[in-house]
Every structure is written in C-alpha cells, then in structure tokens.
Specification:
- The protein is of the alpha+beta class.
- The protein folds into two domains: about 90 residues, Endonuclease I-creI (Roll), CATH 3.10.28; about 80 residues, Alpha-Beta Plaits (2-Layer Sandwich).
- Helix content is about 35%, strand content about 30%.
- The chain has a five-stranded mixed β-sheet. A three-stranded antiparallel β-sheet has the order 1-3-2.
- The longest helix has 24 residues.
- About 20% of the residues are buried.
C-alpha cells in the first residue's frame, strides 16, 4: 500500500468510524429492549419495563466495573430517573419496544457504594439529559371506541413532553382511568396538550381526555 493509499484509509476511518464507546455516559442506556407477554396490555408493559431496567442496569454495571448481584425490581425502580420510549408496539396481551433508561447518579452511588459523577461522566462533559421534574398530578379518564384509539391517546400523552409519568389505574375495552404526573401546572398543561393533539376537559379536580385535532 502506498503512502497516499494509507493516508486515504486513515482519513476514511476518522470521518466514518463512530465515536468510541468509552465516550458514552453509562448512566444513560439507549436502545434497551423491553418485551413481555401477560394477561393484559398494562401488565405486559409493566413487566417489560421491569425487564428493561434490569438489562440497563447490567449494561451500566459492566461499563462501570460494578460487581455483585442485580438489585431488586423495587431498588432499580428507585434508581431510574427517567424512562424514555424510543419505539413501542402493544397488543392486548403483549408489549414490545425499546427504551432509553437514565439512572440518577446519587441513587446509583447510594445503592452500589461507588463514587458516581453527578453531571458528567469521566470528564467527557456529557450531561445527563433528564426531563423537568414532576410539578403536579391529575386523575384522568378516557373513553374510546377501539384499542388502537386508546394506544394513540397514550402515545400522544407520552410524546407531548408535558407528561412525566402515567400510572394506569384501570382499563377495559372502552375506557381507562389513570394518573398523570405533569411537568407544568394543570391549567398550563391542558393548554399545551391541546397543541399536541390531546383534548382535555377538566371536570372538578379530574380530566376527561381524548384525541384532539393535532
């Protein structure tokens, strides 16, 4: 190989090779598989999320050299600062998707006894991209004509950026009741959700939620 060919090969490697994995923040695990089958969609999702948290922790522990057994599901739940849905597919009995799992540095340090940088990892300057904290909670209910309509309501709520978390209280073939954690106060959140294609009708201290025109 001539010097010119060698120089060209090195240039191609610099331009097209991905960044080194060591530059990634192990507290943020992306593309984590979340899959489960259960008696209903809510149970399948919960089991899939629990599995994803375990997988994400194992990846993080390997990257950071943390030894020992994987913490319990309740411990892992407390260590996770955010779960972000990258993609998902739900049927009445199965959940399949991929998540980004972000761990809280302080909680990881407390659970593992290891020193964990708070805002960046190993001096890379890569901050944890954590969403704004939950500011308010509201009880909500939805009526729908099909399971696909419910999935679209849920998808829009999660994609809005306003909803920090969503806890399903009950669900049937045509209705669901749930609790929303909001990153804004309810009046501001209702207006912002309208722009995201979610129709919100306050009723006392709760909401009636459906698809809007967005």
């Amino acid at each position: 190989m001539t010097a010119r060919h060698l120089l060209a090969a090195l240039l191609m490697a610099v331009l097209f090779c991905p960044p080194l994995a060591a530059q990634d923040n192990p507290l943020v695990q992306r593309g984590v598989p979340a899959e489960a089958t259960a008696d209903n969609a809510v149970a399948a999702r919960d089991q899939a999320y629990a599995s994803a948290r375990r997988i994400a922790y194992q990846r993080m522990a390997e990257a950071m050299g943390i030894s020992g057994s994987t913490p319990s599901d309740s411990q892992l739940d407390s260590m996770v600062a955010a779960l972000i849905v990258e993609q998902e597919r739900t049927t009445p009995t199965r959940y399949s998707g991929r998540l980004t799992v972000q761990f809280a540095p302080g909680r990881v340090a407390s659970a593992t006894g290891r020193s964990v940088p708070g805002q960046s990892y190993a001096g890379t300057g890569m901050p944890l991209n954590l969403p704004a904290a939950t500011q308010a909670y509201v009880e909500a209910a939805s009526q729908f004509n099909s399971f696909q309509e419910w999935l679209e309501i849920r998808r829009r709520l999660r994609a809005s950026g306003i909803v920090a978390n969503m806890e399903i209280m009950s669900i049937s073939t045509d209705a669901a009741q749930y609790r929303l954690g909001l990153r804004q106060q309810p009046s501001e959140a209702a207006s912002a959700l309208g722009a995201a294609g979610i129709a919100v009708s306050p009723s006392g201290g709760s909401w009636q939620v459906g698809l809007g025109g967005g």
